[in-house]
Q: What sequence folds into this?
């Protein structure tokens, strides 16, 4: 089973390597990883998709919570949340296939971001299943290249800012990457 976890971490060099190294050393399989700065510059959010049963999920969560640079861990399993995946994909459009590909892009509410003589680059975002379905329908035209961000997610509920600020102050006092 796939599980989505998010870790709010201090935004400093080496944090990604430290966390991914810890997970790899314990043989946890990360199927997807997306990392980016948050609205608070001192923090980054790491979103993981890990495979395994509930025991594996619990172990991953506990290991993340032990790391000093991890301020908060969210398990999205039982939370009301929104997930998205972003993909850029180059598809062949030789001959009359451009109009068919364009029609599929519109159906999937994607966006053509570049057009060349025999190919188009398309941006698609949405649930993982939607992105996968788009790949399946354009495969017959010929996929030249593609890249995906990995899943990102946020809960619909608000994070308590006072608790977050207290965690920030505590984490910045600690020695980095302990």
A:
């Amino acid at each position: 089973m796939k599980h989505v976890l998010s870790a709010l971490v201090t935004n400093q060099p080496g944090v990604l390597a430290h966390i991914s190294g810890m997970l790899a050393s314990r043989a946890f399989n990360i199927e997807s990883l997306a990392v980016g700065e948050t609205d608070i510059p001192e923090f980054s959010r790491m979103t993981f998709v890990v495979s395994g049963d509930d025991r594996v999920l619990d172990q991953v969560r506990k290991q993340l919570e032990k790391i000093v640079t991890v301020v908060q861990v969210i398990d999205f399993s039982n939370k009301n949340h929104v997930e998205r995946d972003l993909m850029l994909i180059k598809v062949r459009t030789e001959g009359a296939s451009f109009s068919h590909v364009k029609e599929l892009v519109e159906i999937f509410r994607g966006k053509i971001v570049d057009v060349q003589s025999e190919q188009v680059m398309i941006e698609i975002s949405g649930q993982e299943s939607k992105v996968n379905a788009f790949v399946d329908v354009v495969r017959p035209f010929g996929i030249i290249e593609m890249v995906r961000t990995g899943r990102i997610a946020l809960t619909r509920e608000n994070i308590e800012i006072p608790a977050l600020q207290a965690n920030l102050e505590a984490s910045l006092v600690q020695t980095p990457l302990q």
Remarks:
- The mean pLDDT is 88.
- Strands lie at 2-10, 30-37, 43-51, 70-75, 81-92, 111-115, 119-126, 143-148, 152-155.
- The two ends are 31 Å apart (CA to CA).
- The first strand starts at residue 2 and ends at 10.
